[in-house]
């Protein structure tokens, strides 16, 4: 049983771990005995056995024709983020900017799912705009803030957008 092996390894680690005390000036006050280490092991109980097959519960998301199955729609993510921002008390202008720029990104790149957003698509979106670099920078900051909120909600695994930068001439 894999769980039992993990627990045995935990017991081994606990058994060899020295314990320190703040009341003894941080000095080592001893190690766990075998009996104390095995205290953390629970006896097997029939009421705690799981007989249902859970193997598909944590499987990776599959894709068909580069469209994720069961992926999170950008529209749904945007709606959740806008509700969160409204609950925090952000201004209506901020909310409308998020909505405007994220929807414009989706329209230009044809992205439907959060998983489809990548650096290449962000550059595609930026290059489609016929505006100054300063305006592109403002829109990019708003879109990056949306992506950060997606990351904080656990919908995106890495902050890939940090490499996307726009050079603006300072006057």
Give the gist of this structure.
The protein is mainly alpha-helical.
Task: Describe what this molecule looks like in 3D.
It is a single chain. The model is unreliable at 20-24 and 61-69 (pLDDT under 50). Helix 4 (92-109) crosses helix 5 (119-127) and helix 4 crosses helix 6 (133-152). The protein has helices at 2-15, 34-38, 74-88, 92-109, 119-127, 133-152; strands at 18-20, 28-31, 63-64, 67-68. Strand 1 and strand 2 form a beta hairpin. It starts with a helix and ends in a 19-residue tail after the last helix. The protein is mainly alpha-helical and 171 residues long.
Kindly report the spatial arrangement of strands forming the biggest sheet: 1-2
Helical percent range? 40-55%
Mean pLDDT: 77
Helix and strand sequence: HEEHEEHHHH
**Structural class of the secondary structure composition?**
mainly alpha
How many strands appear in the DSSP assignment?
4
Shape: elongated
Query: Uncertain runs with pLDDT below 50, 5 residues or more?
Result: 20-24, 61-69
Largest sheet data: 2 strands, antiparallel
Termini, distance in Å? 68 Å
């Amino acid at each position: 049983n894999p769980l039992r092996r993990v627990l045995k390894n935990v017991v081994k680690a606990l058994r060899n771990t020295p314990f320190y005390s703040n009341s003894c000036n941080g000095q080592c006050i001893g190690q766990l005995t075998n009996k104390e280490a095995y205290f953390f092991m629970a006896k097997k109980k029939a009421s705690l056995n799981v007989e249902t097959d859970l193997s598909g519960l944590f499987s990776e998301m599959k894709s068909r024709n580069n469209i994720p199955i069961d992926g999170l729609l950008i529209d749904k993510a945007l709606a959740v983020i806008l509700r969160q921002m409204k609950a925090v008390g952000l201004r209506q202008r901020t909310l409308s900017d998020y909505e405007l720029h994220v929807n414009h990104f989706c329209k230009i790149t044809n992205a439907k799912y959060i998983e489809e957003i990548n650096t290449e698509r962000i550059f595609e979106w930026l290059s489609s705009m016929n505006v100054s670099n300063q305006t592109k920078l403002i829109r990019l900051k708003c879109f990056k803030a949306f992506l950060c909120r997606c990351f904080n909600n656990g919908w995106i695994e890495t902050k890939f957008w940090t490499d996307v930068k726009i050079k603006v001439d300072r006057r």
